[in-house]
Amino acid sequence: MKAFTYKSAASEADAVAALGPGAVALAGGTSLLNLMKERVIEPSVVVNLKSVAGLDKIEAAGDGWKIGAGVTIAALLENPQVVKGYPALAEALETVGTPQIRNMATLGGNLCAKTPCLYFSHDGFACLKRGNGNSCPAKDGDNEFSAIFGTVMPCVSVHASSASPALIALGARLRVAGSGGARELPVEEFFVLSKDDPARENVLKQGEIVTHVILGKPAGKSATYVALHKASHDWPTALASAALDMGEGDLVRTARICLGGVAPIPWRVQAAEAALAGKKVTPETASAAADAAMAGAAPLSQNAYKVKVAHTALKRAVLLAARGSWK
């Protein structure tokens, strides 16, 4: 690991001021420290956000909740209002790592985590995203766990966040603070696909940090389903989060569905949402929605199986949401 200067920020302003060129933000550190050990990321300054006042709070906000980016995954799972009101989020968070990791990892860190791609996250590979290669080695190499959507992009690694698909399905927003002040945006708009800069995963500018996740009024019904883990504590092969607004006769008024583990960003599938609108949720309509979503898949040489896995995750997430989740 490269030597670095360590700074502890007491406020948002302190953090923003400290995050100059060559600096990175540290929250739980469960992802960042591994990347630093592998010399994937070699910052000259590490800015500790754990001491920033208010980032570890869960507070009521109107009909919803304002969750500090420094709140740990374990703390969220221990909060009865979050678990009861937003089951899709709770179910997604239960898939994150091990108990030890969940007690350290933060919600903001989960949103900003780098890809778990073998080629990117380990020293010794020439990787376009790392900036030490001219192409994505997964495209013609080991791509068993790579993307099946967005594969025309220069990099086919999948996004690491398990929480993001659920937050997108729930219509959550993010608060971001920087030198120009604070702004809010939908979680869905936080993530970016860039052909010009494959290393860029989100809209954060230099000196900006995610400070809060803002959840609105709980969705009528929601659920997350994880179809397959590579190992009991590993990143999911595919997951799906669904939030349904139900009308009379148990017909779907609107749906929001997002997939994880299948694309370089959390992948919202509006074709599946449209396929459910105005219909009653049955195994047949849920399967038809999954069919509509998978129509856009373009798997690589070793991961065609993920189309079926994602199809299963989406179908089951919709069915679980319609019946009020599995809890």
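(the above was protein one; protein two follows)
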Amino acid sequence: MMTTLFRIVLIIASVGTFAVIVQKIRRSRMRIEDSIFWVILCLMFVVFALFPRVADTLAAMLGIYSTANFLFLFTIFILIMKLFSMSITISVLETKLKELAQNEALEKHEVQNEKEEDI
């Protein structure tokens, strides 16, 4: 069972996070595609805070003693999944960057060889 204080803190933190996300989008510091994850996460926490029976039921179904522990476990799981997704994205981008750098080096080498042949 969630205490009233915990529910209030959960709502305030979610609304605060949502406000920061909206501000980042407005200043073009965050892509809308990336922000959707955070907006959905904030909305889920607001739902858990406004309807604590949902979180209580999920905690009981999973055999977790405390609803707060369920929320912490849920948060850790979601963030690990986001981290995994970001790791994949970073790996793809690093591969593309390496290929671009290699192609650029080859082009420079070819241009330099052509100049030497002209001389």
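Reviewer note on protein two: The chain has a mean pLDDT of 93.
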